[in-house]
Automatic annotation (TrEMBL):
Keywords tagged on the record: Membrane, Transmembrane, Transmembrane helix
A Pfam family of this chain: Na_sulph_symp
Transmembrane domains' residue ranges: 6-23, 35-66, 78-101, 176-202, 223-243, 272-288, 295-314, 326-344, 356-379, 385-402, 407-427, 447-468
Name recorded for this polypeptide: L-tartrate/succinate antiporter
Record-level Gene Ontology MF annotations: transmembrane transporter activity
GO cellular component, one term: membrane
Gene: ttdT
InterPro entries xrefs: CitT-rel (IPR030676), SLC13A/DASS (IPR001898)
Keyword Acetylation: no
Amino acid sequence: MSQKNIKLLIPVLIALVIWFIPAPEGLSQDSWRYLGVFIAVIIGLILEPIPAALIGFVGISFVAAVGLIGNSKESINWALSGFSNTTIWLIFAAFMFAAGYKKTGLGKRISLLMVKYMGKSSLGLGYAVAFSDLALAPFMPSNTARSGGTIYPVAIHIPEIFGSYPDKDPRKLGAYISWVAIASTCVTSSMFLTALAPNVLAVGMVAQHDAHIIVPWMEWAKIMLPLMIPLFLLTPWLTYVVYPPTQKKSPEAPAWAAEELKKLGGVTFKEYLMLGLALVALVLWIFGKEVGIDSTTTAICVVSVIILSGILTWDDLLSDKAAFNVFIWFATLVALADGLKKVGLIKYLESNISSIFTDISVTTAVITLIVVFYILHYFFASTTAHVSALVPVFITIAVAILPAEQVLPFTILLLGSLGVMGIITPYGCGPSPIWYGAGYISQAKWWSLGAIFGTIYLIPIIIGVFIFL
């Protein structure tokens, strides 16, 4: 039997075993069986024997077919509910923003400008890579597209100017650039709600919780920016200290960037337009609530203008497989998470797990939840799988033990850790395999650096508990 078939068989067997085990007291048999399907989907997302979106699609199809949610009409309405979720459309629209950055060349130009003006030293190059990511982060919810698709093609050529290759002098510059790039994108992924697709997915999930926790873009920024900005500014320097390059000066890099900018030519009208539309979207994401404009409304309106103006064509939209893949994938996961509530599993968890935390202080309980949530990422090769498996459970516990006014800040701190936890393993987030695959950093070194930076990156989240709760 092939490895792929074994990976496919494991979640199926788990679902079958749970299916035929009697439900524990307090749960109906249908609820228990739904949990079995949900666990099988999560295991499938971890092993990924077939595309992740297909795993979620098969999961909702099976649940609807066997009627675990209700009658046939209730089941199909539930199964397709994720596709009408505003959060999912926000993610889809933001992928179009990323496509606009790529097609116009604006993202590449920003990265090259950073190198040209900041890249005279190795430390300056580190900050150039970091600030390139920061400039794109609020508008690109895929850190894979941002770091791996936009910054990587520019940054990976810089070490070669100095004779630094994966198999020859990797520590000269390549290893430093690689680590700064992945570490920076993890921090920026936590800074903004729209900088990481699983952030938006998780926000959509908590909005469907019985507590109806709504996380506005600005509320996220108010908590996460003060915590993440110092960390962001520290990252290139910290890497320079912990994992220093042997090449300290880099006078050739600005000249190379200037030459590449010449090849791009002058800034085009479409680049200016794309930048203007991105800034309009950002302003409305921040202040739209004050004038009654929903963030998703802003996103789809801007996408309409992007297409009507010719920045992207309708064919560009239809051919963006990554956007449609994430749309289907996340829509099915939102429905599956909502199903946990519909079958009564959330209430069951609330009454049976939250009692564990009743004998300790609220602060200790909150820190424990965040640290456990963070450390468990070692077991997930996908931040999306991490969100789907753990967010409903951890939010349920928090709602049970926290005063109502502390639920929102705790939710933001918990979900805000999703970005920075990506640093801990070579598979911790989407761009990790890309930068690891560049070959400049060995696996053993990546794990050790991940442990060091992962610990440092957790500290601001813990500090946030004392500031905001």
